[in-house]
Amino acid sequence: KLSVCCAIDGNCNIYDDINQIKRHENFWRILYISAYYNNASNYSYVDNKLTAVGGNTTDKALLYYLLSPPPKDINVNIVKKIPFDSGKKYSAAICDSKDFPFLIKGAPEVILSRCKYCYNQQGQKELLNILKLKELLNNIAANSVRLLALACCERYEEGRLPDDLTLVCVL
Predict the structure, then answer these.
(1) Integer Cα distance of 101 and 94 in angstroms
(2) Helices (H), 38-163
(3) Dist CA 14 CA 10 (whole Å)
(4) SS3 11
(5) Which pTM was predicted?
(6) Contact 40/56 with Cβ under 8 angstroms?
(7) Per residue in 120-131, pLDDT tens?
(8) Over the stretch 63-105, which tens digit does the pLDDT of each residue have?
(9) Cα(71)–Cα(101) distance, rounded to whole angstroms?
């Protein structure tokens, strides 16, 4: 069964447990929005147990990772979903949120090359040190761990990813 083992932010902080992320309220909010709203799975009760249903195994694993009370005061509505495309290696969601209008999830080799910024633990945007992050991710991937990048952007460009994405984290 596929599961999320950790999250890595743009400053190379590794969170082995979701509760470590929740201590950073603004960062937790951004991660939750990125993973929940750009997801083909949903929550449903099956035999009185909250379960991730629909979508692929990756999306279900993301929802199980988030399985806890969501951050407060989230007001995001999806305008359009762009399903995962194996050629482009990402999926996306266009939202009506002024803070997070374009959410992207996909292969780190595609997403990271377009990231200029990242969110720090306080949820503030800062420049991304891509070389340091790639070195850490290469070491993790060498242990046969599958990686997935979450990012966002302030604008959507039809048919392509903008060159100034903000990395949320790599799972």
Answers:
(1) 6
(2) 57-66, 108-111, 130-141
(3) 10
(4) coil
(5) 0.93
(6) yes
(7) 999 999 999 999
(8) 999 987 788 888 899 999 999 989 999 999 999 988 889 999 9
(9) 18
